Amino acid sequence: MDQDQRGLSPQTSKSSSHQNQVSRNKEFQLDFFIQKKFISDDLKSILEETQQKYSIKSIYVNQKNQIPELEGSAFTIDDPGENKMNAKCDAILHILSSLQDRCKQQINIILLIPEGIVSFLIGSKGSQLAKIIEETNAKITVNQPIANYSPRTVKIVGDQSTINCAIKAITKKMQERGISQEDYKKVPEALNPQKVNSKAKLIFPSFVVDYILKNKNEVENKYDVSIKAKESNDIRLTQKCKLKRDDKIVQLQGSLSNVQDALSSLIRRVTEHQKKQELEIKIVMPASYASKLIGAKGGQIRDLATKSKGAQIKVLSDKDETDHDYHCIVQIAGNLQNKQDASKLILQQIECFKNGGPIMDSGKFLNDENHTSQISNNYDEYKIKRFIILPNLFREKSSSISERNSRSRSQSRRKHKHQRKRSIERRSVSSSYSKRRERANVLSTKIIVSNEVMHILEKYHKLSEYKERYNVDIQADDSRRNSESYLRLKGKLKDCLIVIEEILNEQQKILRK
To answer: Which region ranges are annotated with the description Disordered (predicted)?
Structure first.
């Protein structure tokens, strides 16, 4: 089975009495993974020194936790003694610090945690993980599970103090719940389309919905699904996805495989009923899935378009990906087969996201942020306005030249009509709109830099140079903590980003030295 066709199965619910009987330990071993490029030749002596310094019973390379197809070593720090968790965390930091001194580059770490505690660590709608990220300023990514590999990988990126704070915060959160043997034994399972219950919501013009409801009995009996109309008030759509006056929502419910087949049948029936009239498929999904469906640099949605052999896919959303209360629309256009294939794939992806996400075949792409299969639960600010995939390379040449020209002319007329309407609306809008736009393009932020970088910026008058060149107000905050300083930036968004990039370049120069 393809990687993107698999996902986590829904968790089986257990009674409260069963959960109370499970024995959970507050003291547990810490497992982590370091890439090969960061490991020095004297690793054995570093582990022995760390073990003696922090009086840890056992620190060793654990071959059982080796991440598939990712070069590096998995380590285990184990000591059943009481109140040893802080010492174990300090031991990890000491190992990282020793390796960083030798390789002269910033090291990131991958924590290995039991699969059974992942949902508790992430929290409802990501609240727990978001809180840890906010408190520690570390970039923390709970990666998707790996096939036939029981621990879940949690990548932590930052400087030494940031990584240390993140490790202690995660460990503290795990201690609150405790870890049982069942947590270690739990293994992610592939999504089973026959067993997963799915509710697919679609938007059609009212006359299409009326046709579907009129002929729904045959489809319901054949595919064992239920079809019913939904009130538009039941779903909160983003501003980009407001329903038209004659739009209605229809819901298909049943097993995922049955819903997929039923939807394909409905698309075929409606297309044949409408004959020459074009029909766009609009699937409703949570706005929080928009960035996941698109993927890094559009790789995920481009892959879906390729697999559906030329479907034109649009994701319309204007909310932040952490907004779980809103829904967005996925539009699908193309010929009959394109729309049927793309609809099946998108419904499958949505169910994967609902049940934990796809399972990766190996861990070799854990540190490749651009790989389409790496769908992370990180909480960076990421807003989507509109994403369009038009894979012309795979578009079938089924329609004649005259039909295409006719369609192009009608589209052009609609476009010009829409532009004229928009132009009239813009002229009627008050001047306050333009003021809001101007305020939206202004960025006021505070960044943290090391004192070493700050010294270079002040010594060579870089801050005044950036201020004059990019017209950005830059102020050094007098309040400094330990080895860090604050800089306040205010100006146009684009100019502020350029200044931040210049400061990062200075930091890279220091690291290279």
So the answer is: 1-23, 400-437
Q: Which single residue is written with the structure tokens 């220091």?
A: 510
C-alpha dihedral over 329, 330, 334, 339, to 10 degrees?
-110
pLDDT at 226: 92
The confidence score (pLDDT) of residue 357 equals: 64
Closest CA to 290 of 337, 327, 246: 327
In the numeric block, the tokens 């408190």 are attached to 135
Pairing of strands 226-230, 312-316: unpaired
User: For the whole prediction, is pTM greater than 0.85?
Assistant: no
Q: Is 217 helix (H, G, I), strand (E, B) or coil?
A: helix
Q: Say how many residues make up the chain.
A: 513
Residues 6+ apart with CB under 8 A from 246: 205, 206, 207
CATH class of 439-512: alpha beta
Q: Residue 459 has what pLDDT? A: 80
Residues 6+ apart with CB under 8 A from 186: 114, 115, 116, 150
Tokens for 327, please give them. 């829904």
Q: What angle do CA 353, 354, 355 make, to 5 degrees?
A: 90
- The class (CATH top level) of 25-185 is alpha beta
Pair 176, 142: CB distance under 8 Å: no
State which CATH number among 1.10.10.10, 3.40.50.720, 3.30.310.210, 3.40.50.300 fits the domain covering 197-396. Answer: 3.30.310.210
Distance, in Å, from the CA atom of 347 to the CA atom of 198, rounded to the nearest integer, reads 9
Q: What is the mean pLDDT of residues 451-474?
A: 84
Domain boundaries, the chain: 25-185, 197-396, 397-428, 439-512
| Residue 60, helix vs strand vs coil | strand
Residue 17's pLDDT is what?
42
* Residue-wise pLDDT tens digits, 137-152: 888 888 888 877 888 8
